[in-house]
Structure formats: structure tokens, C-alpha cells
């Protein structure tokens, strides 16, 4: 495995790692799913984490056995409706939505001259970072509209290292989604999974929540 001294950069997921926004995504999708008669389950909620807007809609329709019921135009309209729901939920969001320990962790990384990039599938990530007051940390963002493949494909995390001019093995990827951990592993980076260890069993390092995410704990896990 990677040595701690080898690490030069950190590639972050956003929703569910930096901020509590995965809850808002889930709420907005649930509104739409139930309107379409698709039963909401924890399993569906977990499967939606990390994947793109259209992939999410496809998974919801497939779960309900209605994947062939709607035209592309109707599907576009559903995706737009979900995004409107999501943006409504985001309206009053501020720095209080930053997950525990993340503000200190980012500051610590900057002070220790690590490089940072963002590997979020969300087209709303620039807005979210602005509202959280964290945009200054992420000058290196991957534009998800330029990707050929979504998570779990390695493309987004590979690009996260590339934009920093680093080798994958010099980077740590941080994720709360199974598809995201798979993307990090495929890119050849060290994967840190935040959340349920059973779901994120493929991660190199597991932390139960963001408050455990510190340089010291990563070093400890690698020693
Ligand atoms: C992230 C979230 C997903 C979300 C996706 C697309 O990966 O984890 O829940 O569906 O981004 O977000 P967007 O804001 O573009 O709809
Ligand atoms: Mg996430």
C-alpha cells in the first residue's frame, strides 16, 4: 500500500463528504420517485449516491420496473424537476451544512501544502462550494459535463490527479459512495470511505464519519 510520505494530493467528493447535501439529493429524488409510484428504500438511496443525474433517474425507473415507460423528453423533464426540488432545498444552506471536522481538515491540508481537487459528479458543485464558503480551496475542479463515464468508472478520479499534475499513487480519494470508492480504486489512488463499512468494504481506509478524517488518522491507518 501507499506510504504516508508519498501522498501529495487529496481528491474530494462533495456531496456526503464535504457537506450534508446528499440528504437534500435523496429528499429531492424521493419526491420524484414517489410521484412516479416507485417505492423508496434505503437500498435505492444508497445506490443513488455518487452517480450522475440521468444515471440516478434511470436507476429509479428501473427499480420501479418502468424503465421503458417514458420518452427521452419526459425523462429530461423529470430530471429538471428533481433539480428544481434540490435547488429549493439548497436555498438556505450555508457553512453550517459543512460536515464535522471538514473545515479544519481542509485548513490543515492547505497549511501542510497538500494539493486539492474536486471530483464531484454534481453540476451544482460550484454553487454548493460558494454557499458553503469553501470555493477558495477548490480551484481545481473536474467539470462533470466533460466526462465520458460516470462513477464507478475511474475517469473522474483519474482526472482529479491529472489536474494537480500528480500521479494517482500520490493521491488520496475521499468518498461516501460505493460507486465513488470503486472509481478511486480503479484510478489507482488510495481510497478513503466515509460511512458504513459494510457498504464501503472496498475502501483502503474506512472512517465512520467525517470527524475521523484527519492527517493523523490517515497516517495511523497506513503505518
Ligand atoms: C453527486 C451526488 C448524487 C447526484 C450527482 C449529480 O454525485 O452524490 O446524488 O445525483 O452528484 O448531481 P447534480 O447536482 O448534477 O444533479
Ligand atoms: Mg458523495
From TrEMBL:
InterPro entries: B-phosphoglucomutase_hydrolase (IPR010976), Beta-PGM (IPR010972), HAD-like_sf (IPR036412), HAD-like_SPP (IPR051806), HAD-SF_hydro_IA (IPR006439), HAD_sf (IPR023214), PGP-like_dom2 (IPR023198)
Keywords: Isomerase
A GO molecular-function annotation: beta-phosphoglucomutase activity
Signal sequence range: none
EC number(s) on file: 5.4.2.6
Similarity comment: family membership: Belongs to the HAD-like hydrolase superfamily. CbbY/CbbZ/Gph/YieH family.
Name under which the protein is recorded: Beta-phosphoglucomutase
Species, as recorded: Companilactobacillus keshanensis
Designated gene of the protein: pgmB
